[in-house]
Design a protein that fits this description.
Blueprint: H1 3-17, H2 90-93, E1 124-128, E2 131-146, E3 153-169, E4 172-180, E5 191-200, E6 206-211, E7 217-229, E8 232-239, H3 267-270, E9 279-286, E10 289-296, E11 315-325, E12 328-337, E13 349-361, E14 367-379, E15 382-395, E16 398-409, E17 427-443, E18 446-458, H4 461-467, E19 473-483
Antiparallel strand pairs: 1-2, 2-3, 2-19, 3-4, 4-7, 5-6, 7-8, 8-9, 9-10, 10-11, 11-12, 12-13, 13-14, 14-15, 15-16, 16-17, 17-18, 18-19
């Protein structure tokens, strides 16, 4: 392993070991904590103490008048009771304040993106001095079988391990995040996934009908925010790697589809830049609206998936986000990427995206989360669109999920770069997948899930000879270990 691997693994192990074994399932897949009090932690007995100064913006007792819940603190029997996160439940976590502003912490997703305030939360949490710590992991073992002449099968591992540390600094909040993935262990060929394309994992060949492995280091970032009013703030976020201000949160963080191990074929339209080796984002939060601008390295990660790369911040992204209600998150974004594809030197791209994410609790213990998104890639005078709809239904330890996609893809046939062409004929293709997972509670912080999915792929006449059929099938069987 490289020094990066050892440093990242040891850092994460230190964070996770710091979480008490008695920690309860708190349910946050984001990465934000409230500003802490400096006293040593004791077991939580009741809600946080004392309503804060209305301009503090970083106290757990602060009320968000728009969040749909009364987050005003109640007196605690133990004067230190409000500061141990180890037993935090879903409702109490919703009262915590975000890292980038004085809104509920549950609003934060990957990078600086937003999700609904009511989104599902989880994580092992504790406090060490002024630091609030959180960690969680989703680790999949998957067997993928893809039909047709261009299909294949493979057994592989995937997933993510995330850690966060947060504390008050001055009048604002400092947050550190780290994320790692076992994806490089699957090898440079990635895994079989019909109609997927994009990136190279060996530096020579574009992956077609396969999903590329993500880098081992998914995020090493820091953010600093400063309140400028009761419900407004400014912030700065930097990552090596990190996620620029473009698109909705990355697919593995979206509640609507996070229980599926299958990457979307629209990944390179909406969120493939979530591992960018060099990101600097500045923004302003005005209550339920956020405006932000990023400068970042626009190149996709190279074939060396275990290292950390550096390159100029040569690309730009702009995003506006709004959460008009606690159940709804909207965003629209634009990006100009310089040389994003390693195999297409000198070819720049412009990308657009818009999305709506809705999450809510239904009757009889059911919960629903859905995402609608559109993305566009423009290069060399051509526009290529993608449309995505995904949803999940949960009750108890069962989760049902599904996704439908349409993409205009010019990379499904080999391209002869010697004649100067970087894109072939574009084909409109589609995919519908549906599946389920059943979790088994091994401990308050540990679940083992068993699941599967089936996918129907829609191939146009121009590609039918390549695939041998118009509706090739694909499927996955998987197990998942969920920590936190």
């Amino acid at each position: 392993m490289t020094k990066t691997f050892l440093l990242g693994a040891s850092s994460l192990l230190t964070l996770l070991v710091a979480v008490p074994a008695a920690a309860q399932h708190a349910g946050h897949q984001g990465h934000t904590m409230p500003a802490p009090a400096p006293e040593p932690a004791k077991p939580i007995q009741s809600a946080p103490t004392a309503t804060p100064d209305p301009h503090a913006g970083h106290d757990m007792g602060k009320m968000d008048p728009h969040a749909g819940h009364d987050m005003t603190a109640k007196p605690a029997a133990d004067p230190h009771a409000g500061h141990d996160m180890a037993a935090m439940n879903h409702g109490e976590h919703g009262a915590m304040i975000g890292a980038l502003g004085s809104y509920p912490a549950g609003r934060e997703s990957s990078g600086t993106s937003w999700q609904p305030d009511s989104a599902e939360h989880r994580g092992l949490m504790t406090q060490v001095g002024d630091w609030h710590l959180m960690g969680h992991a989703d680790l999949f073992g998957v067997y993928s079988k893809q039909g047709s002449r261009r299909g294949d099968d493979k057994l592989f591992g995937a997933g993510m391990i995330m850690g966060m540390a947060k504390r008050p600094i001055g009048g604002g909040t400092l947050q550190l995040r780290a994320g790692f993935s076992p994806d490089p262990l699957m090898g440079k060929s990635g895994y079989p996934l019909l109609l997927a394309s994009g990136e190279t994992a060996n530096g020579v060949d574009r992956l077609i009908d396969r999903q590329h492995p993500h880098d081992f280091v998914m995020e090493l970032s820091a953010s600093l925010s400063q309140p400028i009013g009761p419900k407004s703030s400014v912030f700065l976020y930097g990552g090596l790697p990190g996620e620029p201000a473009f698109g909705p949160g990355a697919f593995m963080h979206r509640e609507s589809i996070m229980d599926s191990p299958e990457a979307p074929i629209s990944h390179h339209w909406l969120d493939s830049q979530h591992i960018s080796f060099g990101v600097l984002t500045g923004g302003v939060v005005l209550d339920r609206v956020k405006l932000e601008v990023s400068r970042f390295n626009g190149r996709e990660p190279d074939q060396y998936r275990w290292n950390i790369e550096t390159a100029p911040l040569d690309s730009t992204a702009v995003r506006v986000s709004a959460n008009p209600t606690r159940d709804l998150a909207l965003q629209a974004s634009w990006a100009r990427l310089k040389d994003p594809e390693q195999l297409e030197p000198g070819v720049n791209q412009t990308r657009w995206s818009a999305s709506a994410i809705y999450a809510t609790d239904l009757a009889n213990g059911w919960r629903s989360a859905s995402t609608l998104a559109w993305g566009r890639k423009s290069a060399e005078g051509h526009d290529y669109d993608a449309f995505v709809a995904e949803t999940s239904l949960k009750k108890g330890l069962w989760t049902l999920f599904g996704r439908g996609e349409i993409t205009e893809n010019s990379e499904l046939l080999p391209i002869d770069h010697e004649d100067g062409e970087h894109h072939g004929e574009a084909f409109t293709v589609g995919k519908v997948s549906a599946g389920a997972i059943r979790d088994f509670q091994l401990s308050p912080q540990l679940k083992l899930g068993v699941g599967g999915l089936v996918a129907v792929n829609f191939v146009p006449d121009g590609l039918r000879a390549e695939y041998g059929k118009a509706r090739p099938l694909g499927g996955m069987a998987f197990v998942r270990l969920k920590i936190g």
